[in-house]
Design brief:
single chain, 279 residues, mainly beta, 4-stranded antiparallel sheet, 1 helix
């Protein structure tokens, strides 16, 4: 269920000892006067200052929200629809543009956001993450591509998921663990896999063909090593330990998610609203 409200509110969950709250932002609170379509959040990341940057696929733009109030502080219109977004540093983010095979760099300042660089990739991809001056890209099938920050291809590897036709499933999200040596990939119909970031060696898998938790939309990791996954098939968010063992179920609907360890919270985007949950 998508939550809507006229203003920002706090919704306490008695089943979680009043420790969980949800802040939801109505679509009209995010949209700007020039928007033609409803906001459709397909990716989000959190900057070191706690502000949230969302990829609005519906309106082909990025929107920055203030950390505490979730009020819109900046926007950046793009010529093409973004999908995934990740932090590069404290003042830059990168977005994927699957329709054009692009990575676009966005500079985030206190009062503005601006496109500063575009990298053209020679093959399809959908999601991206960034660490140690390298991009990790994924899309259809099990192949992960590694590029430098300037767009030079370094390597690619297959995660060796077993399926007759790899093109029938798609990677829906990608992220690196807190130490940077484990790569997590979320798949519809294949669950979550953890692989070595150098060669794709499978370390463990959560969900899969026979599991009710196989349809995973999003994944994010916390500094202490925990992994959070958003599961479409059960419309829930689960917390896993570093070995893929289920620890807890978070009281929120499934959506695009991002852990903010510095502020002890989990942000979940559901269509056009945000749920912010204390951890």
């Amino acid at each position: 269920m998508t939550l809507y409200c006229d203003d920002i509110e706090l919704h306490y969950d008695p089943f979680l000892n009043d420790r969980t709250y949800t802040e939801c932002v109505k679509t009209s609170d995010i949209r700007q006067s020039g928007d033609r379509f409803p906001c459709h959040i397909t990716g989000l990341c959190i900057l070191p200052d706690g502000s949230i940057v969302i990829a609005d696929h519906g309106n082909a733009k990025l929107t920055q929200l203030k950390s505490e109030t979730l009020a819109v502080s900046n926007t950046c219109s793009l010529n093409n629809k973004p999908w995934s977004v990740c932090c590069i540093n404290h003042r830059e983010v990168a977005v994927s543009v699957p329709e054009r095979f692009l990575i676009q760099w966005i500079q985030v300042r206190q009062t503005s956001m601006a496109l500063v660089k575009t990298l053209k990739i020679s093959h399809p991809f959908k999601v991206l993450t960034f660490r140690d001056d390298k991009f990790y890209l994924a899309g259809h099938g099990s192949v992960v591509y590694v590029y430098t920050s300037t767009g030079v291809p370094l390597s690619h590897f297959s995660c060796n998921l077993q399926q007759d036709d790899e093109t029938t499933y798609s990677c829906t999200d990608i992220t690196l663990g807190n130490t940077g040596d484990i790569l997590f990939l979320a798949y519809i119909d294949k669950g979550l896999i953890a692989v070595d970031h150098n060669d794709g060696t499978l370390l463990w898998q959560y969900g899969g063909n026979s599991s009710q938790n196989r349809n995973i939309r999003s994944v994010s990791t916390a500094e202490e090593g925990c992994v959070y996954v958003s599961i479409c098939s059960s419309n829930s968010v689960h917390k896993l330990d570093g070995n893929g063992k289920e620890m807890d179920t978070i009281s929120t609907d499934a959506g695009v998610l991002c852990v903010d360890s510095a502020h002890s919270r989990l942000v979940v985007a559901i269509e056009s609203s945000l749920n912010v949950i204390r951890l």
